[in-house]
Design a protein that fits this description.
- The chain has 414 residues and is mostly beta strands.
- The chain has 2 domains: 179 residues, Acid Proteases (Cathepsin D, subunit A, domain 1), CATH 2.40.70; 163 residues, Acid Proteases (Cathepsin D, subunit A, domain 1).
- Helix content is 6%, strand content 36%.
- The protein has 4 helices and 26 strands.
- The strands form 6 sheets. Strands 1, 3, 4, 5, 6, 7 and 8 form a 7-stranded mixed beta sheet that branches. Strands 2-10-9-24-25-12 form a 6-stranded antiparallel beta sheet. Strands 15-14-19-20 form a 4-stranded antiparallel beta sheet, covered by helices on one side.
- The longest helix has 8 residues.
- The protein is globular.
- The two termini are 36 Å apart.
Length: 414
C-alpha cells in the first residue's frame, strides 16, 4: 500500500448533484479542537426521488455525523467513521478547479467499502478543521460517474483509526493534531442525540453530552484493531412495560462480550451463532439475512439494552434500526444482521453512538462510555488521562421516539 500524508481524504465528485454547506463556529479551548456536527439532508434528483439507493428510506439517513472542513479554499462536509483508517469527506460535489493549492500526485487508489468500490485520483492540499490547519493532506478524489464505480451513496469518510502498527505515524490524524500542539492527547469524544446537534471533540470530552458516570473500559484487542470494549450483557425489552429478556452474556466461544463501535456502520450485528435463540426471545423472523419484526412490536417501544457495567445501561430503541415498513404496515425491515462476520462478538454502529457518549483514548488504550444526553456543552481538555469518576451534567434522558430528519431541499442538477 502506498503511504499517505496525514490522512487520506476521500472526496466524491459528481456532475449531477451539489448541496450547500455552511461554516460552523467552534468555541476556542486550550488543547481541544471542538467541532460541532451538522446535518446534511438526503439528496434528491430533479424528479424529487432519492439520488442514491442508500437514501431510499429516511430512516437510513437519521444518524449521519457530519462536519465542515476546508480543503484549500473549498468547504467540504465530512462523515465521521471511527472504524476507518483513512480520512474522507462527506460530499456530493468536489470541484478540483476551485482550489489553487491542489496538487495532482499522478496516482490512483482503489478504495473498497464492503462490497462497494471506487477508484480515486490522488492529490494533496491544505486542510483545516474548525479554522485550524492540519497541513498538507492526501486527497482521494473519486468520480461517481466513472465506469466500474460501485458506490451506492454520495459519501466519503473521516477515518479516526490508524493503520495497524503505525499508531505514532503522522499519517494518523490524531497524531498530526498532537504534533502541532492543537490537542494535548490522542483522544476524541463523540456525542450526538438529536438531528443537527452534537460534536466531535478532539483532545477532550463534553460533560453536557451524557448522564451518569463516564465508565472507564480497557480497549478490547481484536484482529483488525477496531475500537471495542467488553460489556456485561445484551438484552431485549419487548415494550409496553414488559420485563427485559437476556439475549447474550458471552460470545460463541464462552468469552466475555466484546462490543465494536463504528459510527459509519449502518448495521447492528448480535452474537454469531445465536439466531434460533434470538428469534425465540424477540419474535423476529429472518429474511434476506436480516432480523425483521412485527411493526406493532416496534410501536410498543421495544428496545435493546447494552449493559455496559453494573451501573450503566445504554438503551437503543428498536425503531432506530428500522430500514423500512412493508406497504401493509405490518412488517418492519431492519438493519439488524442475522449473520455476524465482524471482528467482535457484537458490532454496533451509529444507532448505538446516538444513544451513548463515547470517548476514545487511543494512547491510553482505553474507552469511556456513558448514557447519551444533551443539556448544552461543557468541553474539558484531556491532558494526560481522564480523571476517575467523571459524571455527566445532564439528568437521565430516556430515548425519545425517533423523528424523520428534515425534508431534503430540492437539489438542482448541474
Amino acid at each position: 500500500m502506498m503511504p499517505v500524508s496525514k490522512a487520506l481524504l476521500l472526496l466524491l465528485a459528481s456532475q449531477s448533484l451539489a448541496l450547500p454547506s455552511e461554516k460552523q463556529e467552534s468555541p476556542a479551548a486550550a488543547g481541544v479542537l471542538h467541532l460541532p456536527l451538522v446535518y446534511v439532508p438526503s439528496a434528491v434528483d430533479a424528479d424529487g426521488k432519492p439520488a442514491t439507493r442508500r437514501q431510499l428510506s429516511t430512516g437510513i439517513d437519521n444518524y449521519q455525523y457530519n462536519k465542515d472542513i476546508a480543503v484549500g479554499a473549498v468547504i467540504e462536509v465530512l462523515g465521521l467513521q471511527p472504524g476507518q483508517k483513512r480520512t474522507g469527506a462527506k460530499s456530493t460535489f468536489f470541484d478540483q478547479n476551485s482550489s489553487s493549492s491542489l496538487q495532482d500526485l499522478g496516482r490512483e487508489r482503489l478504495n473498497s467499502y464492503g462490497n462497494e468500490q471506487i477508484t480515486t485520483e490522488l492529490y494533496t492540499d491544505n486542510v483545516s478543521f474548525g479554522g485550524r490547519s492540519v497541513g498538507k493532506v492526501t486527497l482521494g478524489v473519486g468520480d461517481l460517474d466513472r465506469p466500474g464505480t460501485n458506490l451506492g451513496r454520495h459519501v466519503g469518510v473521516l477515518g479516526l483509526l490508524p493503520e495497524r502498527g503505525n499508531e505514532n505515524s503522522k499519517d494518523f490524524i490524531l497524531q498530526s493534531l498532537l504534533d502541532q500542539n492543537i490537542v494535548k492527547s490522542k483522544a476524541f469524544g463523540l456525542g450526538v442525540r438529536k438531528h443537527g446537534q452534537g460534536a466531535l471533540t478532539f483532545g477532550g470530552y463534553d460533560t453536557s453530552k451524557f448522564s451518569g458516570q463516564l465508565e472507564k473500559l480497557p480497549k478490547k484487542d481484536n484482529r483488525l484493531g477496531f475500537y471495542a470494549f467488553e460489556i456485561k450483557s445484551l438484552s431485549f425489552r419487548p415494550g409496553s412495560g414488559q420485563d427485559a429478556v437476556e439475549l447474550s452474556t458471552q460470545d460463541s466461544r464462552g468469552q466475555p462480550l466484546a462490543l465494536g463501535v463504528d459510527s459509519g456502520s449502518l448495521g447492528f450485528y448480535p452474537v454469531r451463532g445465536t439466531t434460533r435463540d434470538f428469534v425465540a426471545k424477540t419474535g423476529a423472523v429472518v429474511e434476506d439475512d436480516a432480523y425483521n419484526f412485527p411493526c406493532d412490536v416496534v410501536d410498543k417501544g421495544a428496545a435493546f439494552d447494552f449493559q455496559i457495567t453494573d451501573n450503566t445501561v445504554v438503551s437503543v430503541p428498536l425503531s432506530d434500526f428500522i430500514r423500512e415498513r412493508t406497504p401493509d404496515g405490518k412488517t418492519c425491515k431492519t438493519f439488524i444482521a442475522a449473520t455476524n462476520r465482524r471482528p467482535t462478538s457484537i458490532w454496533a454502529g451509529r444507532q448505538f453512538l446516538r444513544r451513548s457518549y463515547v470517548v476514545h483514548d487511543h494512547a491510553g488504550k482505553t474507552m469511556y462510555v456513558a448514557r447519551g444526553a444533551d443539556c448544552g456543552s461543557t468541553v474539558v481538555a484531556i491532558d494526560g488521562t481522564i480523571p476517575d469518576n467523571v459524571t455527566g451534567n445532564c439528568a437521565r434522558e430516556e430515548p425519545e421516539a425517533d423523528q424523520p430528519p428534515p425534508a431534503a431541499p430540492g437539489s438542482v442538477p448541474a
